Amino acid sequence: MPTPDRPGFALPLLLLAGFRTLIDDLHAELARQGHPELRPAHGFVLQAVGVDGTTASELGQRLGVSKQAAGKTVDRLVALGYLERADDPADARRKLVRMTERGLDGLRRSAVVFDQLRDRWAATLGADRVAAMEDDLRTVAEPNFFRLDVSGWLGP
Q1: In the chain, what are the domains?
Q2: Each residue's pLDDT expressed in tens, for the chain with a length of 156 residues
Q3: pTM for the model
Q4: Alpha helices per DSSP H over 33-141
């Protein structure tokens, strides 16, 4: 039962604050490592593009945004050197969006930094408490908790 010192609305705010702390720390470190232009939404896009590439339409579906919104983000990431457009070898009428080496480097570095941030939380809270928190969140979260459409869900 919620109490005055632990109201129900505090839980999602604390979860969001933890998420925001991790994401802000990630992007500060990525900036130090040569990726200052990467933004949180870009990570969702790079994950949705994947190593095999995709079309702008498929990307929009994966992200839960319109083809036009996906195309605008792709344009930005192409300009920054993280993505490229290429002809689809299986269908000359289609254009694929693919990650460049810079995009792959950003994802690889993100994975390493996330591990470091988790280790930092474990050093602060204790490894057992962090593992228990992860287990508890897996228990209450949907089985398919990693959804790429989070950026569209957070938007207007």
Answers
A1: 22-141 (1.10.10.10)
A2: 778 889 999 999 999 999 999 999 999 999 999 999 999 889 989 999 998 899 988 998 888 888 888 889 999 999 999 999 998 888 888 889 999 999 999 999 999 999 999 999 999 999 999 999 999 999 998 876 555 565 555 554
A3: 0.85
A4: 40-49, 56-63, 67-79, 101-125, 127-140
